[in-house]
Write the structure tokens for this entry.
Amino acid sequence: MSEFNIALIKGDGIGPEIVDGAVTVLDAVGEKFGHKFNYKEVLMGGCAYDACGVPLPQETIDVCKASDSVLLGAVGGPKWDSVPSQLRPEKGLLGIRKALGLYSNLRPSILKPQLKEASPLKDEKLKNGLDVMVVRELTGGIYFGKREKAEDGSWASDEEKYSVEEIKRIAKIAFETAMLRNKKVVSVDKANVLESSRLWRATVTEMAKDYPQVELSHMYVDNAAMQLAINPAQFDVIVTSNIFGDILSDLSSAIAGSIGMLPSASLGATKCGMYEPIHGSAPDIAGMDIANPIATIVSAALMLDMSLGLHEEAKAINAAVDKVLDMGYRTADIMSEGMKKTGTKEMAALIAQNL
Ligand code: IPM
Ligand code: MG
């Protein structure tokens, strides 16, 4: 029997419910395949601010660093809108990404045939499907640049800065990801305006020489957003900066039917990654047992696959999700006519039972 230590950051809003859903499924995986998952719950986000006065306690960083992997729900909510900016829940999330050195963020969007109805795009735009991996740089750019505000409040600024090293390492992840997929990378920037984007483009172009089998093209971010909406099937891997990746991954997930379905992996130089749904904490539906736990459950699958080396187990989770969708079960966000409406707990239990 193999044992794994997993740090759980449930966070705020629907975070606890969806992480509990993933734990239900992980426990069932453990039972079926003979593994033991040891969980250690730690605080981050608004709940950490409430309990300890900071959004990211040192203990959380220490526990995460000592774990095989981290599973995260979501953080933030209007409750903390008035706390000072350096203590906001989101600061905890950015802080843990930085503290664990998680510079690459993989956000796959796949349109499942069962969810065509839930996509905002017309059938005609979806006929060639959607299977895109957004590779988002996660510890640089405007998210971590210098922030300034005039004392009299008359101006404010945020700096977008990238070093060649930062661009190279994320480009490498993108090319290597593409080698395992359809060998196409679109690098997204705003090189017609931004100096940092021109460096981005030049560096990615240089990197491409090491991957002659991969077809590289470049796209301005505004055009990339339009292209995702009019012809999503053209994309295989998109590599882009922190802020552009944030925006485009919400778009690609919406096209896939619901942001409630999609996982993400944040990785750095070690095997210990952080896995989380790409959606937020949805405070408006917190505690109502209606949130879709699938994004967190498939994030757990991604964790098994990418950090723990449990590939069969990961496949089993994804297959169980498909099976439950095929059986017609839907949470509210992906509900359509003739389907069976279910809640957070029941959805997780069904997936666990169908492993
Ligand atoms: C995400 C989220 C975060 C981000 C927020 C909550 C800080 O939107 O993970 O995409 O912008 O990175
Ligand atoms: Mg986002």
Q: What stands out?
A: The chain is about 40% helix and 20% strand.
